[in-house]
Specification:
about 170 residues; alpha+beta; OB fold (Dihydrolipoamide Acetyltransferase, E2P); 2 domains; 5 helices; rod-shaped
């Protein structure tokens, strides 16, 4: 009879000693453990940054608010989330925003045609723009016709006409 009671007491003591650190765990340690579990490197870095923000807030705040900020860090909501977006959020997207505002295709009427010494086409349009051919392929064009300049990939441009299927690569001179 004493053996089962002794065994039960031992199990209860062992389980309470194992569960007590989990019940009284530090919120920051829990937040760090959650960050370690992140598989994506960027998300893991953001998680650690949120913990850093919380830790700096704890240094200047009272202990009651520190535990609240640690709880928000574990929930994945940074303490500085209410701040407006920083300029760093738009870093690398400036060219995409300006591209949205620009037209992809521009229709113009040919005012003057000339050729370079290397037989490259130089076209002046009615709005004063001058475009020069990049390659030496043939392109049928005459004064008074309406042609288009179309924006391509990697800041390239093509000159074309709706009446035929041929286009040439051009660059703007003036």
């Amino acid at each position: 009879m004493k053996k089962p009671l002794c065994l039960i007491n031992t199990l209860l003591l062992a389980s309470s000693s194992l569960l007590s650190p989990m019940l009284h765990a530090d919120p920051m340690a829990d937040a760090i453990a959650e960050c370690r579990q992140q598989q994506n490197a960027l998300k893991r870095l953001v998680c650690y940054d949120e913990i850093t923000v919380v830790a700096t807030a704890q240094a200047s705040a009272s202990p009651a608010t520190a535990s609240n900020t640690a709880a928000t860090a574990r929930a994945g909501k940074p303490a500085a989330a209410s701040k407006p977006a920083a300029p760093a959020d738009n870093f690398g997207l400036e060219h995409k925003k300006t591209a949205e505002k620009q037209a992809d295709q521009l229709y113009l009427t040919v005012q003057n045609i000339s050729y370079s010494p290397r037989k490259e086409l130089i076209v002046e349009f009615d709005n004063g723009q001058i475009w020069r051919q990049n390659d030496n392929s043939y392109y049928d064009i005459s004064v008074g016709e309406q042609h288009y300049i179309k924006r391509g990939m990697l800041n390239s441009f093509t000159l074309g006409n709706d009446n035929n299927n041929r286009t040439i690569k051009v660059r703007r001179v003036e």
